[in-house]
Design a protein that fits this description.
Structural class of chain A: alpha/beta
Largest sheet of chain A: 12 strands, mixed
Number of strands of chain A: 26
Oligomer: homodimer
Largest interface: A-B, 80 and 80 residues
CATH superfamily of the largest domain in chain A: P-loop containing nucleotide triphosphate hydrolases
Chain lengths: ~550, ~550
């Protein structure tokens, strides 16, 4: 099979103005970025206000292998297949960070015959949204340190500035640093660090904001530090929410591109699925819902992370709900959950053990009251016996399942999946969140721990207990909870594969994302600044005299 | 008078596709970024290769007051006035950094009735070129620290990594930092710092490159560190010039916008005029020369910095030369050079003393063999007697001078200047550089010190003497010299106003920009990372619900 970029280069793209016209976006709202990318003004949503929403299809996955199971290619392939069936569909996705492109991970614009294009641009800079977030983020830091240097009127405690600096780069050397050395002219030395931009609360805020006033309100509420007396210091106290919103003025508009089969795709915003909610911007999804019959969107990591957040936090915030959930599974991830890392050999025992992971995710998703369809992504190493076993298992649970070969075959490989998804989408459903936002913080966490993570008990470490007091004192405990934990297990321990239960779930600490509107419960170490490997992908990346890029995958 | 942004908002812009069509740029090469900005593929230069160049007009200035004398408004106004006279003209300018927009300086897209538009976009992100340079720059740093962590095969001396990190922000707390703290996983601790992106050698390289292969060659040659044995370590040694060029793939294409009077403007690249050559990209100027009759371009700081570099380094590198030089002077800058800071009162004595600064710059520029026209930028506090005095003084030197009111009146205010510039541009001239690139390094510096800075002697501090040995050992001493010194005096001392002479010029140290192709001679402290003031402009900046920005000036 050809490489992603070879396949991409063979595709015949339509002009983006045509794509926009096909879905009836008025020309005035189309801000062209070259021939194949456009920003669509978010103001267009005001005009579409009274239009009926299309159906929403959420794509999620079981706990994956470290290589990933093809959730994005499934989302793209499914949307292309729905179009192939004569219905209208738009796929909405997160935009990839540039940092990881230089690391091991490579690009993130789908793959094989299920890609969004132009993949080189999407993976490198795209329309500059992430750079805008970086700039806004670092402006906050520069203002904090200037404030401290010039008298510190807000009485900011230099040892409790939670707001780190940000960069869209895999740069481990910036994780932990000491800044403002060199004496008086350079300010007051303190400990600091950089996070990757996707982990910035500004990224989360941008993806949740309804419009510019809502963006400013959320930015204003972000807590960056505490005073020496312990009081929260917000961006509103620094009076720069207007400047930040000005810096983000274009970044708030969704980006329109196309799939390899010329169907429309919105790619907008990229928050993490552990310390944030992990899905593309609400504005993009809302706009897509107004413009088409079926919107396929995706949430980050497994169903215990991204989908749970989508259902308990994103949907209530946005005022929409999915009509169907597609749960991506693979034979190899099930075998991995069953205890093997050898995916080349048929291994029914590992599969039988690992399939418990799929069962748990199906059970979990059913609790939310939304119909589920399993997409079984086919790999060349899967045997018929293995595939047959999974299909039977799922059908016995009363759930529809379809083989998916969108990676290798594009829409043709996802037609069966598309048909089953369309059928299920006709069912009436009502979203039943796992917890109520008004539950006490510990109750919200206990409900998640029991219902989703299958723990019997929640332990709080000292730091976490202190934060709970802080949240209660300053009125933040009504916020919903975003659990940050490993993606490799439904539990808080990446080594507990399959379907762990009856264990203690440990909350190490909390963080406050008051602008985004949630409390992050930290269950495990969360990496917020990746590093480059010994030989990074930067060594492979190249561009020729005509501007053709190679080494992107 | 209205504020810049109010004036900007009243302007009626043409679609950028129309502007491009007016100057005969083929549609295929126009990459639209919204309705009013376009990137023009640099590949178009290949097609234009055999077309005759237009005339080149270089705008420079005397030593300024800290508030600046309006060089950019003069360039814009002059180009608009040439168009008004029925000739075709394009202005080419540097793109503003975003960092200073948040500081005291504000934007940098001209002002009053001589602006380039859309000024909000030009001042904030624009087409992302500077973000691309930041990304490329920091990729080099991340790769250096990953290389050191994973065995350091190149034997990089951690105490001699010259390559700092970069950010487009005024952030003094990042000037001097310690990185990679926190133990093994985060790498090897060392001292580091951030410079503002405009000061990155990658910015200089981008602005000098002819095309992508030349860009890669220059990137490859950049020296980032020395080995423990003292040998230079280059980006070529790290094998990432291809990745950097891929990151800069779009940034190499010039940006086309328009002036407030709908005449075309290229705004592309923004290197400093102290540690770099201080003018917009060669690609933009070369393309403009092929597309129009008169190109107005500008060099940074005063004629002793930007213009000298343009004539001794940029022109020989590019293979073009100016046909006329416009020297911007103001009554208040002359009075400032004459020892007063009170510009409100008529002060003939200060003016008589200060005008020596103008005399020196005229003499200096005449040495290069190119005709000079003085633009006397009028301010409301200037008295007729003062203006008359300056005009007589210049005319007595046999040099043409015109009053310029482009800031307040647009092209109408620069018509007389335009006429005189067009007349002078008809004269045959030959560029005579001050030094020969093949002169020994100390000879090059001595020639500059005597002919331009009017010093009698050059002192070298220890660090500088050691670097000369290093350059000779590794074959870098044939490179031309870029002197980094104060912009407020023709000397190396900002307090020596007017026309200092017979003093010792001191070279403190050297830096190597082997990719850009020059040696930087440091004569004084050069600030490479500005800071925010106590109350930054970020507090004024805002955007309303409809996306209109306020607080930009």
């Amino acid at each position: 099979m050809l490489s992603d970029i070879e396949i991409a280069r063979k595709a015949k793209l339509k002009k983006i103005t045509e794509i926009a016209k096909d879905i009836n976006i008025k020309e005035d709202y189309v801000h062209q970025c070259g021939n194949y990318i456009a920003k669509i003004s978010h103001h267009y949503l005001r005009e579409l206000k009274d239009k009926k929403d299309g159906k929403l299809i959420l794509v999620t996955a079981i706990n994956p292998t470290p290589a990933g199971e093809g959730k994005t290619t499934t989302s793209i392939g499914l949307s292309m297949a729905i179009n192939k069936l004569g219905k209208k569909s738009i796929v909405t996705l997160r935009e990839p960070s540039l940092g990881p492109v230089m690391g091991v991970k490579g690009g993130a614009a789908g793959g094989g015959y299920s890609q969004v294009l132009p993949m080189e641009d999407i993976n490198l800079h795209f329309t500059g949204d992430i750079h805008a977030v970086t700039t806004a983020h670092n402006l906050v830091s520069a203002v904090i340190d200037a404030h401290i240097k010039y008298g510190n009127d807000l009485d900011i405690d230099e040892t409790r500035v939670f707001w780190k600096r940000a960069m869209d780069m895999n740069d481990r050397a910036l994780r932990q640093i000491v800044i403002a050395l060199g004496g008086h002219a350079n300010g007051n030395p303190r400990e600091d660090g950089f996070i990757i931009t996707a982990a910035s609360e500004i990224m989360a805020v941008l993806c949740l904001a309804e419009d510019i006033p809502d963006l400013k309100r959320r930015l204003q509420n972000i807590v960056v530090a505490r005073t020496r007396k312990g009081k929260p210091v917000t961006i509103g106290d620094l009076k720069i929410e207007g400047a930040l919103a000005a810096v983000l003025k274009n970044a708030i508009d969704p980006n329109l591109v196309q799939t390899i089969e010329n169907t429309p795709a919105f790619i907008h915003g990229g928050p993490f699925a552990n310390i944030a909610h992990g899905t593309n911007s609400l504005i993009a999804t809302k706009m897509a819902l107004k413009l088409t019959d079926y919107v396929v969107t995706e949430s980050g990591f497994g169903a215990d992370l991204g989908a749970e957040k989508f259902l308990d936090f994103v949907s209530p915030t946005a005022g929409f709900k999915p009509d169907v959930i597609v749960l991506v599974a693979t034979v190899r991830a099930l075998k991995y959950n069953g205890g093997t890392k050898d995916f080349e050999q048929e291994n029914m025992e590992a599969l039988r053990n690992g399939i418990e992971n799929l069962r748990v995710h199906i059970e979990n998703l059913r609790k939310f009251g939304i119909p589920v369809v399993v997409a079984l992504n086919r790999f060349s190493t899967d045997t018929d016996k293995e595939l047959e076993f999974v299909i039977k298992f799922v059908e016995n649970l009363g759930v529809k399942i379809a083989l998916n070969e969108a990676f290798a075959k594009g829409s043709e490989g996802a037609l069966d999946l598309a048909k089953k998804v369309l059928e299920e989408s006709e069912k009436e459903s009502e979203l039943k969140p796992i917890y109520n936002w008004h539950d006490p913080l510990e109750v919200k966490i206990m409900k998640l721990a029991k219902e989703i993570y299958r723990a019997s008990h929640v332990d709080y470490e000292m730091a976490a207990r202190n934060k709970i007091k802080f949240f209660k004192k300053y009125g933040y405990d009504h916020l919903p909870v975003i659990v940050a934990k490993t993606q490799y297990s439904i539990s808080d321990d990446p080594k507990k594969l399959g379907a762990p239960s009856n264990y203690n779930f440990t909350i190490r600490d909390f963080e406050l994302s008051a602008g985004a509107g949630f409390i992050v419960a930290l269950a495990g170490e969360i990496m917020r600044m990746p590093g480059l490997p010994k030989v990074s992908n930067a060594v492979n990346l190249d561009v020729d005299a005509d501007g053709n890029i190679t080494g992107l995958f």
